[in-house]
């Protein structure tokens, strides 16, 4: 049990080393923060099932209910928009009520929304269940959750931990996407929706029993830092989230980070995660094969995101962002020429290349928020993440409309590539924070 783990001293200085008895080796002490990070990783993996399903729903729902792809894309866009808009308020709620309570409730809401879709018959019910309920629940499980855990439990290795926790979403996609694709193809979309609900509920006990809100709860210092008392609960969570937004909105870096992250969402969740499977199916590729390619993207996303966290600890974050967006844009411009009925080597090269870049942008973006906005960085990142999801929502809807109007996704792939080029230029414009600016931002 976690409570059996030898805890470090409350002081930042290491305790004196004792001479082992009878020549035995001294016990290796693992800081509690790594166990909290592990529980967070498992939680995000379990909650990632809901993120794997939207792209698999478009064709089955279109075939059963004869809803247009634009209508289905609208429900997905509501989900993505609320996912982002909820994030900054969720970060503030975690300061008020604690991480465990917020995340446990969020997982329960996700399960409820996914389960209710089994009985839907009208488009508005899809919007309500999958768009609103799952969107609100997933927003509270957004990357602001990972940012809050990292900020509280780690004073060192923050870039690496951010990369690992961000990669958890891709790992969940890897675990669930092939299974959900198989369920959709052989048993229909309803068993897949039930599987998502059960996966979300299964994680709730891990969160409630094993996660801790703050190092002071177990009388410890954060990893690599000095002991600090747990701050009192912050009242007025919604007011604080809005106040932080107004403060950040008066600074240039916020708009540049929000703009680049909006393009990030448009070129990942909004486009590839939502429309890659139906686009590949348009070219004759089986749904299971296309879903398998997305799962492979998840494999290399884990590698790329953890590596990005390692790079973020060592290199300038804004330059990393510029490189990531430029490479992503180039890969998307080539994608329309690679789609075919069968998987071939050039497509595999795209999958590997694009997968390494999928969410590699997250660690440097969080680092830049931390540099510029100090103690408010988790909430600021929540608002930046909101822009990510607004961009994703816009393209999820626009991609469906483009397919209905033009019979092809080609124009959307090319537009996304051009947007990524613009994001690379925007990242280079972000300036370093002035001396004392971080302290003022967190005050």
Automatic annotation (TrEMBL):
Residues 1-23 are annotated as: Disordered. Residues 1-11 have a biased composition (Polar residues). InterPro entries: MFS (IPR011701), MFS_dom (IPR020846), MFS_trans_sf (IPR036259), Proton-linked_MCT (IPR050327). Its main location: membrane. It is found in: Cell membrane. The chain crosses the membrane at residues 33-58, 70-90, 102-119, 125-147, 159-183, 189-211, 254-272, 292-311, 323-342, 348-368, 380-402, 408-430. Keywords: Membrane, Transmembrane, Transmembrane helix. It comes from the Bacteria. PANTHER family: EG:103B4.3 PROTEIN-RELATED (PTHR11360:SF284), MONOCARBOXYLATE TRANSPORTER (PTHR11360). This is MFS transporter. It comes from Streptomyces roseicoloratus.
